[in-house]
Amino acid sequence: MAQREKITGLIKAAIGPGFALLTLLAIAGYAVLGPTGILAWGDYQKTLDERGLQLAKLEIERDALQNRVNLLDPNGADPDLIGELLRKEVNVVHPDEIIVPLK
């Protein structure tokens, strides 16, 4: 009987530290294997590199569009660009121009 009480007491005394150990192991496993863990850093670096390339392409496109906006500024518009846009978008030509279809 005394031995049974001794074993029961040891088990009861080990429940708290055992639960704490399991909790720490779960947190450590999540820190290593989780979606934001150590093993996910490589994927994040790859994604960051891809997004950097996307950003560079978008910046080039933005700069080209900004240049076009600057050329269309009403205070100092580029006459060649305005003529090109009129011919292309509105289908407007001068009476003395000859149109040669390329297709």
UniProtKB/TrEMBL annotation:
Question: Could you confirm whether the keyword Transmembrane helix appears in this record?
Answer: yes
- Say yes or no: keyword Transmembrane present: yes
Q: Name one Pfam family in it.
A: DivIC
Q: Which UniProt keywords apply?
A: Membrane, Transmembrane, Transmembrane helix
The name on file for this protein is Cell division protein DivIC (FtsB), stabilizes FtsL against RasP cleavage
Which InterPro entries has this protein been placed in? FtsL/DivIC
Q: Which residues cross the membrane?
A: 20-41
